[in-house]
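Researcher: Go.
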Amino acid sequence: MTRKRQRNYLIIWTEGLLAKGKNTFSWKQLRKEFKDIDEQALISALRRLVQKRKAVSVYRGFYVILRPENYSKGIVSPILFIDPLMEYLERSYYVGLLSAALLHGSAHQHPQEFFVVTGLPQLHQTTKRGIKINFISRIDVPVKFLISRKVETGYIKVSSPELTAIDLIRYQNHIGGLNRAATVINELSESMEAQYFSDDLILETPVTFLQRLGYILENYSLKPYLGDKLFVDVSMIHGSLTRMPLKSGKGVGGYKTDKKWNLIINTEIEIDQ
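Model: Structure:
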């Protein structure tokens, strides 16, 4: 019997991929594999596969194969397919912000949104069955500050705890603001080490983010000495600090200044317990 006459040929093929430890495929890959099948027939077979919840489209032309335990929800965690998806899109990336903090042990972080930092141009966010992947763009991806983390389906790239903390300040508007950033940094500080705030990391980070992070580490984290060490290193590399507001976009009149970090304390930090 030829594959043309086997109505379940896609199920058999995807089960074979799972047996090899692969849980994703693309339309391009599918078309190449079944080049003897009429394109419209293949599209129909793929549609049936999705309708049976054997697979789900997570990005245009890219599919995740669902195991039986995933059938009811119809989706798997992005952590299990983000690396092959980014390879498919030919983009450098890393898992960052709240998603990285969770991987580093911030126990209170269980966001419905999955955060991925990529290079330019901007990728549009995608939402599938209640799981949103938020793509955040930056000019360059700082490869030297990333960690490879083993997951069930292979390896993913994750920002180091120190880069994660910086990004929580840099992209605070994506996660709910400065208080949310400070709350996560408080938990994340348990995984941070002063030695990994390297000269290279300090040099590639705008000073204003380091000022705000240092102030939060010193005053609102489980390891206040991280802030002291960061102040010494930032001062040696950048010299005197320019006066900046703790909260950008808010007025500065009538507020005191933290003389050490040269920050105008124009907001009160509140840490969620």
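Model: The radius of gyration is 23 Å.
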